[in-house]
Each structure stands twice: as structure tokens, then as C-alpha cells.
Amino acid sequence: MQQIVKYPVIDIKPDPNNPRKAFEQADLQYLGASLKWRQIEPIHLRRDGTLIDGERRWRAAQLVGLETLNGIVWDDIPSPQELAAIRLTTFFQRVDLTPFEKFQACEELLRLNNWNGKQLAGYLKIDPASVTKILAAGKVCEHVRDAFAAGTISQSDVYAISKAEGETEQKELLAAKLSGLSRDQLERKRTRAARGSDTESRLTTVKVSLHGGTLVTLRGHGLTLAGVIDHLSETLKSARRAHDSGHPVTTWIRMMNDRSHQEIPHA
């Protein structure tokens, strides 16, 4: 367990690899006044005084004339994964984070440590149910995630929409929410849609004749109309990308088959 020590501000050095380069003077002044009263989170440093996490607090301390900061000194140089985890964990605890920024921090912590949601909840010391809601943004389509990032919909809205199956239904729920539905109304709408999909015909083969004698065939397990729309939309996007890259249809078919084989889980 690392111990917190009083570290001289004058002996601290910034990390040249810190991605954050811009610091607002007014923001630092406000933070410095707060640090004079109480330092909630310690800074993290290497043995030579180089900052691992806390450059904003260090700059604020210099600005208001503080002589020391509470810090944790690492005897062993942390790995890049440990450094990222420290910064992300500190970032997550900030009170001014948006729900979408919390989602991004949690998603990155999962990726770095190969954790599941329960392990992440234990590390952050928060309720696993809260982590489930935070991570719901990873289960929605891009349109819903963009609305969440913009602050147009709430975390509870995202959680409700994430329970819907397929991009088409999620887009419909997003449109309903943006039209003025409350979160409870959104949840009821999703539940009704789920019940409706249970009674909808589910096919293993869908054949559609198009103009000019072209026949489109889809095969799968439990195909519904919403599923057909999603599959055809993704196929069309892939075909357009291949066309824009100058690939012939035979190359595109081979690329699609290769991707399909890669997505099949192996026993």
C-alpha cells in the first residue's frame, strides 16, 4: 500500500508525456483557493519528483504559494497501463464529469485491465448496478451514443434504450424520446415493442424479388423484419465502402465472407 507524504511543490516536475497541455488561469486560481482549504485527492509522483497524475493541482499550488502537496511516491515505475488506470480513476472521481465522460473512463478501464463490470465496480467501490447503467452506452447504436455525448438524453434514457434489440428499434426509441417522452414512457414503449417482437414471425430464410429479376436471400436464426433491416443496412454500408475503394464485387464478397468467419466464435 502506497503511503501519502507531504511533497515539496518546488521539487515537483511535470510529465512531458501528459496529453493535457492547456490550463485555464482562472480555473487554476479557483482550484488553488480550494487546495488551501483542503486537498481531497493526492498527486502521484515518481521517485525523482516527476508527476504521474496531478499536474493541474501542482500548477494551482504554485499559483497560490502552497509549499507542499499530499502525494504518493512510487518506488517502482508504474507500467503505462497502471499510469492510465491512475489517471482514469482520478478522472472518474471528479464531480464535474458528464455521464458520457464517466462512460468513456469506465470503458477504458475495462479495456486496459480486461475486467468485467463486477470487477470494475469493486475497483471503483461503487454499486455494480451503477456500473451496468454507466456501461449501457456501449450497447447502443451510434445515433443514440451521439445524443448521449451531446447531453440530449440522460444516462437513464440510454439504459432503457440499450435493452432494445437492433439498431432500428433503438433509433425509434431515440426519436420517441426526443419528441418528448419521459423516461418511464420510454421504458413502457420499449417493453411493448419487445412483447410485439415475441409474437412476430421469425424466419430462417427471407427471399425478396427485386426489379429486374434480382433475388436477395437472407438466412439466419429467428429473422424478424427489424433484423432484416439491420442486416441489409450493414451490407449496404459495406458494399458502398468497397465501391468507393475501387474493389470489384468478387473482392467485396470475399471480404464479407472473411469477416463472417472471423465473427463466428470458436469452441
Automatic annotation (TrEMBL):
What the entry lists under Gene3D superfamilies is as follows: 1.10.10.2830, Conserved hypothetical protein from pyrococcus furiosus pfu- 392566-001, ParB domain (3.90.1530.10)
Question: Could you cite one Gene Ontology molecular function of this protein?
Answer: DNA binding
Task: Give a Pfam family name.
Answer: ParB_N
Database matches in InterPro entries: Chromosome_partition/occlusion, ParB/RepB/Spo0J, ParB/Sulfiredoxin_sf, ParB_N
- Please list the residue ranges annotated as the ParB-like N-terminal domain: 5-90
> Which biological process annotations from GO are given for this protein?
chromosome segregation; positive regulation of sporulation resulting in formation of a cellular spore
Give a Gene Ontology cellular component term annotated to this protein.
chromosome
> What family does this belong to?
Belongs to the ParB family.
Q: Which NCBIfam families match?
A: parB_part
The entry's protein name is Chromosome (Plasmid) partitioning protein ParB / Stage 0 sporulation protein J
| Biological source species | Fimbriiglobus ruber
